[in-house]
Design brief:
By secondary structure, the chain is of the alpha+beta class. It contains seven helices and four strands, in the order H-H-E-E-H-H-E-E-H-H-H. Helix 3 packs across helix 4 and helix 4 packs across helix 6.
């Protein structure tokens, strides 16, 4: 609700009485106002749909990725990749953190692969650790799963793009109308 900075208790004329913001909206169907529509739009949770990332050099293998990444997660992954160390952040480790933490499932030839208990695979799954012959899911199992470090980094870039971290937002000048020339 927008409130006035200064409230004036005196009516504009003798016959007018001050009208409160509540009184202005009471009696109206506020369910169809532009304000109520904006409120509903803003209160709706923004969730980007899952995307699929091919694993190069592994024909038929795709990762199902949730591109819903928070800034806090990014900060954590950067730190785990050595961002605050003297040597600086290791780009491949950061990429492995991105891939490893956003993977929701693994597909082979368009079929989702499930573990022995019927759950979707991810890099922490015992089956993935076994097939990659690794103990730690990130970064080792991710790197072994892809086989080549540049492919891990390329996958992370694709995931970050799908997350919106590369989106550009353009300002629109509402005073300039569209041209039909």
């Amino acid at each position: 609700m927008v409130s006035e900075l200064y409230e004036d208790d005196t009516p504009a004329t003798k016959d007018e009485k001050p009208v409160s913001a509540k009184a202005k909206t009471s009696g109206k169907d506020i369910g169809n106002t532009v304000l109520s529509k904006l409120t509903a739009a803003i209160q709706a949770k923004v969730i980007r749909p899952d995307v699929y990332v091919d694993v190069p050099e592994r024909p038929g293998v795709k990762l199902r990725i949730s591109p819903n990444i928070t800034q806090q997660q990014m900060k954590h992954w950067r730190k785990n990749a050595g961002d605050e160390t003297r040597a600086g952040m290791d780009a491949t480790k950061f990429a492995a953190w991105v891939v490893g933490n956003t993977t929701q499932g693994i597909h082979f030839n368009d079929d989702e692969v499930l573990d022995n208990d019927g759950y979707e695979l991810n890099f922490a799954s015992t089956e993935v650790l076994h097939m990659t012959d690794q103990v730690r899911p990130i970064p080792e199992a991710v790197r072994a799963f892809f086989g080549l470090d540049p492919h891990v980094e390329a996958a992370a870039v694709a995931i970050l793009d799908a997350s919106g971290y590369s989106d550009t937002i353009e300002a629109v000048d509402p005073t300039k109308g569209s041209t039909t020339n």
